[in-house]
Amino acid sequence: MGSVAALTTSVDNDPEIEPVQWYRHYIYCDACGSFDLESWEPADKAELETRRRRPALLALWATPLLAVPAWEATGIALHLSLLAYFAIAMAFTLLLFGWLWGRAWPFAGLRRFVLRGIPWFAAFVVAEWLCGLLPCWAVAAAGAIVLAVALAWRAALPAPVDSLGMCCRECGATYGHQTAFFNDLDANPRGLVESDVPLPLGSSPFVEGRYVGPAPAEQPSRLP
After folding, report:
1. Domain limits at 62?
2. Quick check: bond before 19 cis, omega within 30?
3. Is 100 a member of any domain?
4. What confidence tens digit (pLDDT) does each residue in 186-218 have?
5. Are residues 124 and 151 in the same domain?
6. Along the chain (224 residues), what's the average pLDDT of each consecutive run of 10 residues?
C-alpha cells in the first residue's frame, strides 16, 4: 500500500480532555499515485441482492397465512382484513382532503401507505377465504411451510460482498483485500510527502496508524 504518514493531533472543546497524537496514513494508488480511491464493489452485487430479496418477499407475503388463523383462534369476530381496510380507508380519506385543500405534498407518506396497503388487504382477504374453505390449522401449516422454504432458500444463497478492496478512479487499478496493497501500511513506493495529499486533509481515504501519545503542551506566548 502506498501511503503518506501524517502526524495528527486530536482536537476537543473540553479543556479537561488531553489531546493525543497518532499517525494517519493517507493511501494512494501505487500505479499512478492518485489519492482518489473508492471502494471496489463486485459487479454482481445488485443482482445478488435482488436474488436474496425474492425469498424474503415470499416469506413476508406468507405471514397472513399464519396471522389470520392465529387471529381467528382468539375468537374475535372482527376480521384482520377489515382492520387493514379501515387503516387504508383512513389514509385515503386524509389524502383526499389534503388534495382538496391544495396541500397534497405533506401526504406523500400516506399515498405510499395506501398503494402498499392494498396488496396486503388482498392477502388478508385470500387468507380468510382459505380459512373458510380449509381448517385453520391447515392454512397455518401451509404458511409455515412456505415461510420455512423461503428462509431456507435465502440462507442457501451466497451473501453479497460489500467491498472487494479499493479502486483508483484515475487509472482504474484495483487492489483486492488480503493483497500486498493492504498488508504494508508503512510502504511509500513513490516517496510522497504530506504536502502531496489533497487538501483539506481528511477528505482522502486514510487508515489509522500507530498511536504516538499525549500531544506536547503548548508553549506560553511571550507577547505582552
Report:
1. 45-156
2. no
3. yes
4. 788 888 888 888 888 777 888 887 777 676 655
5. yes
6. 78 64 85 84 75 88 88 78 75 68 60 76 87 89 92 83 81 80 78 83 80 62 46
Look-up of cell digits 483508483: 168
Sequence-ordered list of residues with C-beta below 8 angstroms from that of 92, at least 6 positions apart, any chain: 110, 114
Q: Is 107 within the bounds of a domain?
A: yes
- The answer to whether 170 and 102 have CB atoms below 8 angstroms apart is no
pTM beyond 0.70: no
Same domain, 184 and 92: no
* Residue 70 near residue 141, CB atoms below 8 Å: no
53 and 36: one domain? no
Residues 135 and 183 in one domain: no
